[in-house]
User: Fold U2A'/phosphoprotein 32 family A C-terminal domain-containing protein from Caenorhabditis elegans.
Amino acid sequence: MNVTSVTSEDGVKEFEKIVVEPEDIEYVEIPADAKNVDLTRHRIKEIGDYSWLTHVEHFSFRWNLIKKIENLDCLTTLTHLEFYDNQITKVENLDSLVNLESLDLSFNRITKIENLEKLTKLKTLFFVHNKITKIEGLDTLTELEYLELGDNRIAKIENLDNNLKLDRLFLGANQIRLIENVDHLKKLTVLSLPANAITVVDNISGLHNLKEIYLAQNGIKYVCGIDEHLPLEILDFNQNRLEKVENIHQLKTLTDFWARGNKLDNWSIMDELVELPQLNSVYLDFNPIASVDTYRGKVIHLLQQITRLDGTQCREHSMLRPPKEEKNETELSRVVLDNPSDDHPTESV
Assistant:
C-alpha cells in the first residue's frame, strides 16, 4: 500500500491518495501423490482444500498464521501433522485423522487439551508454549509414548492413568510443586521437570526404567532417598538450592551428575561421587566449593573415573582402562585365537 499526501503552500493537507497494491501470491506445486508436504513459512492464514492429496502421510504447516484447524477431514492417510508456531486457539476437527501417530501444536494459543479422543494411534504429542492449565483429555491415548507439555501453566501432574506406554514425559517451565501421580508409569525412561517449584524429590521409586531425570531451576535443598534400584544415568540438579547431597552412591549406573549453581560448600559430596564407577561428567561450578583455587585439581584427583568436569575435558578417554591381569599357564592353555583366517582354523594355544 502506497500513501501520498498533497499539502498546500501554508502546510495544510488538501487530500491523501492511497494506492492499494495486491499482495504477492506464492504458488507451491504439490504432486497429487505426494507423501510429504512441507508448507513451512508460507504466510498461510487459512487451511484450504487438500482433498486431492490421497497419499499424504507427513504434513507440516510450521510457522504460519493459521487460526483454525479445518478442512483436513479427507486426509485420513496422515500419520504426522505439525502446526508448530501458528495462532490456533482450539484443538478441533481432527476426529477423522485416525491414523495420526504424531501431532505438534506447540507455540500456539491453546488453553485446553481436548477433542483428541479418536486419535488412538498417537505416539507423540507436543503442546509446548501454549496456555494450558491442566493435563486432561488423554484417557484414550493408550499408545502415547512421548508427551511434551513444557512452558504452559500446569500446576499438577495428573490424569495419566491410562498412558502406561509413556517413555518420555516433559513438563518443564510450568507451576508444578510436587512429583506425583507418575509411579504407575513403569516404562518411563525420561522425566523432565526443570523450571518448576519442586522442593522435594519424591514418588519416583516405582519408575524402574527411569534413566534420566531433569530438575534444574527448582527449589530443591537436599538430595536423599532416591531408590537405589533406579537405573539412573543422568541426574540434573543445576541451579537449585542444594546444601547437601546424600545417598546417591548406590546409583551405580549414573554417568552424569549436574549440580552447578547450588550452595554446596562441603567436600563430603566427593564421598558419594567416588563410589559411582560409571560416572563420566560432573558439573559443580558456581558452588562455594568451586571458589577455592585448588578446586579443579582436587576434584580431578578424587574422581579418577570422570573425563569431563564443568563442561571441559579433564582426562583423556585413552587413559581410562582396567589394569591388565596376568594369566597363569592354566589360563593361557584355554585362550582361543581371535579373528582366525579361512586358511588357519581356530586353535588353542
Q: What stands out?
A: The mean pLDDT is 88. The helical segments are 269-273, 295-302, 329-332.
